[in-house]
Amino acid sequence: MLRNSRVLMPYLLVIAALVGGFLWYQSEQVPRMGRVVSTGSIDVGGAFKLTDHLGQPRSDADFRGRYMLIYFGFTFCPDICPTTLAVVAEALDKLGPDAKKIVPVLITIDPERDTPAVLADYVKAFGPTFVGLTGTTEQIKDVEKKFRVYAVKRPTGESGGKDGTYGVDHSNVLYLVGPDGKMIHFYTETLSPDDLAKDLRTKV
Ligand code: NI
């Protein structure tokens, strides 16, 4: 057993390096925004016209006066979306009264399945202040482009997608938009609730 693992170790290291390299390469395809100092008038974000989880039309202008903490994801996401939204929920809890200044927003990248009703069911699990936004495919494409979101549909399931099941590969970025509608910060990695709360406290 020990001998085997010694023999295998160099191969495992090579495989690990390859996988790591591939993941790094993939992550490089996704937004590079984390490396940008993101204060001032950086060209990410912008106006949108969407529909919220209650079926009401919502535009970016409706959120002026409050911060938006925006995440692009989808309700069928098995892991990263619920994890990130749970972190946001917990961080806002930790913020206390300051949390009132922030509206947590999930913009779906899967408008086909994420109808207002589906979003309503989903966002309420994270807290009463969460807003889910969906729209037509064109509206969603437009907002994805403005926020430089990476989102690609991929067949999934045992049938390899023949039954129509799919996931969406997507970038994992939290955007903090200011009360004036300007982008303040991108979080390009999932922080702990404590770290996110601590950072938000310095910004809102
Ligand atoms: Ni996801």
Report on the structure:
This protein has 204 residues and is of the alpha+beta class. The protein has 2 domains: 1-30; 37-201, Glutaredoxin, CATH 3.40.30.10. Helix content is 36%, strand content 22%. The chain contains 5 helices and 9 strands. The strands form 2 sheets. Strands 2-1-5-4-3-8-9 form a 7-stranded mixed beta sheet. Bound molecules: nickel (II) ion.
Strand content: 15-25%
Rg (C-alpha, Å): 19 Å
Separation, N- and C-terminal Cα atoms: 55 Å
Strand order of the largest sheet: 2-1-5-4-3-8-9
Report on the biggest sheet: 7 strands, mixed
CATH fold-level name of the largest domain: Glutaredoxin
Helical residue percent band: 25-40%
CATH superfamily of the largest domain: Glutaredoxin
Number of helices: 5
Write the layout of secondary structure elements.
Blueprint: H1 2-29, E1 49-52, E2 57-59, E3 67-73, H2 80-95, E4 102-108, H3 116-123, E5 131-134, H4 137-146, E6 151-155, E7 166-170, E8 174-177, E9 183-187, H5 193-203
Parallel strand pairs: 3-4, 4-5
Antiparallel strand pairs: 1-2, 1-5, 3-8, 6-7, 8-9
Helix pairs in contact: 2-5
The chain binds nickel (II) ion.
Keywords, please?
204 residues; alpha+beta; Glutaredoxin; seven-stranded mixed beta sheet; 5 helices; globular; binds nickel (II) ion
Describe what is shown at a glance.
This protein is α+β, with helices and mostly antiparallel strands. The protein has five helices and nine strands, in the order H-E-E-E-H-E-H-E-H-E-E-E-E-H.
